[in-house]
Fold this protein.
Amino acid sequence: MGQSDPVMTTVCCGAQVACDQCDARDLAVCAVLDEDELRRFSAAATTARLEAGQTLFHEGEPADEMFSLTEGMIKLYKLLQDGRRQITGFLVAGDFLGLAFGRTYVYSAEAVTPVRLCRFRRAVFLRLLEEMPHLERNLLGRASSELAAAQEQMLLLGRKTARERLATFLLTIAERQRRTDSEPVDLLMSRSDIADYLGLTIETVSRTLSTMRRLGAIALDGTSRVYIPDREALRTIAGVG
Amino acid sequence: MGQSDPVMTTVCCGAQVACDQCDARDLAVCAVLDEDELRRFSAAATTARLEAGQTLFHEGEPADEMFSLTEGMIKLYKLLQDGRRQITGFLVAGDFLGLAFGRTYVYSAEAVTPVRLCRFRRAVFLRLLEEMPHLERNLLGRASSELAAAQEQMLLLGRKTARERLATFLLTIAERQRRTDSEPVDLLMSRSDIADYLGLTIETVSRTLSTMRRLGAIALDGTSRVYIPDREALRTIAGVG
DNA sequence: CGAGAGGTTGAGCAATCTCAACGGGGGTGG
DNA sequence: CCACCCCCGTTGAGATTGCTCAACCTCTCG
């Protein structure tokens, strides 16, 4: 607990937590900080866990805290009053969330799988940000990437067919998991989540996956494991240049 | 030209350019910098103009420069190979664009109206950013807002009906122009641009606007001027809480 | 073994798209 | 100065993608 662990094991996780909460992506965050900064950064965080399905925060709530995901997957979404839902992203270990510069969260966040995260009081985090320009630069880079991803998703939602959406989605997941062509991809999220991410219904997602399976573009093992025999072929379907 | 103008007149525009290039939104950028910083910032910029329809840069080109829009409107868009287009945003005076942390632009930018902008070499701007933490914080705030707007747009594209999309769009424009309920809104962009922004066809945009006019939700003066007699009513149509 | 949740498949439907015709305004050339 | 053309926007009719509603299946958990 109080003993002086090597810095890397305490990063992003709070000093009292073991190193199994940090993975390779965490290191990317921490590479921009020196030892002393890492220590202060860690000291500012507490940790939290969520079971799958539990909500971290709701859109509209006061944005008092921000989080760094260290394990598992979280989905972000927005709702219309009648319950229609749009999932705006799936976060994995190493991602930040809740950094609202306004007063309230602009989306809801819910655990897809069991999740561990680091929790920062908003004011504390903003102070750290001022003290550590490298961290701020890193966050700006992250925001910039997220924005690019959001624009890619707008293209998908506004202009792609159901088949193109699914192909794009599978390729994105495959690249994120850094698997080779022969290794399968794990979806982790439900059909309902996929549908709400791609702007479709669960029936259309199901049907489209079945069609792609029949065409040989993918193979399914259970509902969650997907083999992509030929990524280039899928890329063609996805409508990517 | 070389004379020492008051600082505010030179901001974001390059020292050699008159103050009519700056509007209230520019001041928001500059409020975070002190006099000396403003001077250096201005000195780093050159200016450019574009006619309506001219392209500033294309997606995929090396991102060597970044820009600050001082007058007019620019649209950002992405294309699929077969020509389907998604407009991801309309920028107005005070907005930044082209700040890519990757090597290439991730979208194309084209003038909607005649446009003036300040141009920064990428490397120069990044250096300024390092020297001026306030500027970096400001950019992070902007990126954060843009991200929130992008997520709102994903909700629109993924889950809203044509009528809801148009209502949302008109309200957003109205709020951006800060007009009262009785003042009309100027669209500036073509039906084709609106369609590609909302993930619809021009025919659907046209039909939906006509229907809304028949219902009394809006009134049209020409193709570009829109009166919104009751924003609250439009907000109900838009499906906003 | 029954119940419930999540997923698949089918049939019909509806919102939106496609294709096509038409109209008005502005610029241009005779 | 006027006729023409072209671009943009509107409207109509039919086609189509994806949605809705419903049945059924499978797996898990009590």
